[in-house]
Amino acid sequence: MDASRASDPGADARASTARLAAAALVAACAFLLYHATLLPSFDFGDTGSFQVTVGSPVITPRDGYPLYFAIGRVILRATHAEPARALNLASAVEAAIASGVIVVVAAELAGSVVAGAGAALLFVVSYTFWSQAIIAEVYGLHILFVAVTLLLLLRWQARPTTHRLTLFFIVYALGFGNHLSMILLLPAYALFILTAAPGGWRSVVRPRVIAIAVACACVGALQYAWNLRALWLTPQPPHGIGEALQHFWFDVTKSDWRDTMVMNVPRSMLSDHAAMYWFDLRQQFGPVIPGIAAVGLIALARRNRSRFVLVALVYLANFLFAFSYNVGDTHVFYLPSHLAVALLAACGAAFLGRFVPRAAWLGGLAIAAYACVRGYDDFPALDRTNDWRPTQVVSELTAGLDDRRAVLLADVNWQVQNGLSYFAKVTRPEVAWARMPDVLLYAPALVADNRAIGREVVLTERARASVAAAYGPLLPAVVDTRVTVPTLADATKDLAAGTRYVMCVLRPSRDLPIAVDDLAEATRALTGGRLLSLLASSEYAAVAGIVGDPPRYLAAGAVPFQRRIDLDGVPVQIRMDSWLSADTIRRMGFGHVIAARHHTLIVERGVSFVAFDDHGVPIRSAYASNIFAPQQRYVIR
User: For 176-233, how does the pLDDT look when each residue is reduced to its tens digit (9 = 90+)?
Assistant: First the structure.
């Protein structure tokens, strides 16, 4: 096929035009989809950290990601939007462009534009990529760089010139400014260049080619001069370039925690991680596509051995890294391997389509239709347009506080802390706050100084415990009665009989245990006096029904599940979309309740509850034993 195109420039031009048109169409559809489900404001976790940092002239080595922040800064200035919204939008734009590039890469590998577009659509609606494309995260841009570098290598193979190879080196080096995991692509890329070079491997290890590669790597590394410069703006700047480089490398690679996490999955957990991977792969593509991808792998090996090695090694390196990475959001590190699966699915669909006389495009059309069906099914669960939970949590935590009358000393979960940082910088800059661990050593002096100027000192729950442990009666704290902290039982006790509800209970994090008495009282209120102890003892559990009646549905188990039920004429889908033994962080939530195709509840670890009307609109929702649960506040007297 490649030879026939080479001998027919007109056919080659028509094929290029078709690929570009398909790429543009898929990219436009992806952007509309992501924009329609975009998170409206800030979030907890790393997302909140990115959102509070974008636009800052100082990016520390610990912040990293200089190219990501530079692009975010451009979009922030171009849109004049709130920083959180601008950075969320940047992710949608980057992911949409990546989707268009994937069309071209998949079409080149499969020899079919329809199969390439179908594979790209599969990836567009894959659960993890979609969830990262609608929040401020680095993975949309990372996949864009993976796809572009793959495309540049394939173009170099088609016409191997030094200029094309240089362009690949430049883009690959720039990719490190967004995410250092670009290094995982090096074995695949290096071996491809060595084996695909028309003059043999010696033709690409010449001094000139090596010098170009080194020069491009140095240019790419210059992106981090922004981060390195920030060290001299700190209160304790380094004494010399040597010390600065040591601090820079330690922070930018996050050596303090990567050393304990990379290749550090306990042997006893390997089988669990294997089960988690199969769950994750089916979550992205369903059970059929991996089989088609396996067919595509064989077909690609028969057509072009060097391309087979390229895609296989991209998959294998990223799979092994994620599989052995003992971190709380392993699922996002599988994304490049999922891209390889989608590319191979295009090859498989094109190969299988050849068995249909005069309709080889049917294979690609079939996976495109399958992608649309999956996208339709997942749309309500991935729609975050009305997800104001982080704003609500932090607003309640800081209610009634301003820098004239109070200062907040907070010791909260790190994910909530990042959201609080954004809220106090952008949304309500009048809120004065500090991290309790940073001020604990001189807390008495801090309290005295603030009282002297008429400001009270307010504490979060963990901050109050820290103060009590360190200073006892010297700094007594009492409950701040200006804020109310409803319990789970409060959220369920006065619901009208006949109200539809769903309660989900997932094994909580170790630092946020379930209050069993509160859960028992809530279940009694919902189920007419029946205590469902099964809820508190299972990995995943859900109860659904009508207030006052026996439960219509009860499920519990050790593995995630999905169920579709009917509550008095309202179709309800309960989804457990996480693997608790591996997932401590899920930006999209650990599960979902979809009622009448409405995103009724995002399920978190601990207890998640919602009561809703016949349109699936929440009447009341509540969280307990997780980062979205309300917190008590205290005042030092």
Answer: 999 999 999 999 999 999 999 988 888 899 999 999 999 999 999 999 999 999 999 8
**406 DSSP β-pair partners:** 456
Do 427 and 312 lie in one domain? The reply is no
Domain boundary among 445, 463, 483: 483
* Distance between CA atoms of residues 637 and 44, nearest Å: 31
Long-range residue pairs from 566-569, CB within 8 A, at least 24 positions apart, any chain: 567/500, 567/595, 568/500, 568/614, 569/614
Beta strand segments in 76-142, E: none
Residues pairing with 576 in the sheet: 591
- Structural domain count of the chain: 3
Is position 5 within any domain?
no
From 461, 483, 505, give the residue that closes a domain: 483
Give yes or no for a contact between 543 and 503, defined as CB atoms under 8 angstroms apart: yes
Same domain, 449 and 558: no
**Averaged pLDDT of the chain:** 93
Helix axes 289-303, 335-353, angle to 10 degrees: 70
Inter-residue long-range contacts of 159-163, CB under 8 Å, 24+ positions, other chains counted:
160/196, 160/197, 160/198, 162/208, 162/209, 162/212
Residues 237 and 169 in one domain: yes
Instruction: Decide if pLDDT at 262 tops 90.
Output: no
Say whether 435 sits in a helix, a strand or coil. strand
Domain assignment of residue 4, yes or no:
no
- Rounded Cα–Cα distance for residues 459 and 469 (Å): 14
Q: Answer whether residue 407 shows pLDDT above 80.
A: yes
- Candidates 212, 131, 235; CA nearest to 164 is 212
Task: List the single range of 12-21, 40-49, 113-122 with lowest mean pLDDT.
Answer: 12-21
User: How long is the chain?
Assistant: 637
- Residue 506: its H or E element: strand 500-506
Tokens of 239: 């004494």
CA distances from 244 to 94, 383, 410 (A): 33, 44, 31
| Radius of gyration of the CA atoms of the chain, in A | 27
Same domain, yes or no, for 496 and 607? Answer: yes
Residues 140-182: tens digit of each pLDDT: 999 999 999 999 999 999 999 999 999 999 999 999 999 999 9
- Give the domain range for residue 64: 21-382
What is residue 259's predicted lDDT score, i.e. its pLDDT? 66
Residue with tokens 């102890």: 533
Contact 34, 130 (CB under 8 A): yes
Q: Is residue 10 in some structural domain?
A: no
Question: What mean pLDDT do residues 445-456 have?
Answer: 95
Q: Which pLDDT tens digit goes with each residue over 570-616?
A: 999 999 999 998 888 998 999 999 999 999 999 999 999 999 999 99
| Domain presence at residue 1 | no
Question: Do residues 431 and 528 share a domain?
Answer: no
Q: Please name every residue paired with 572 in a beta bridge, in sequence order, or none if there are none.
A: 565, 595
For the stretch 99-119, pLDDT in tens is 999 999 999 999 999 999 999
* pTM score, whole prediction: 0.94
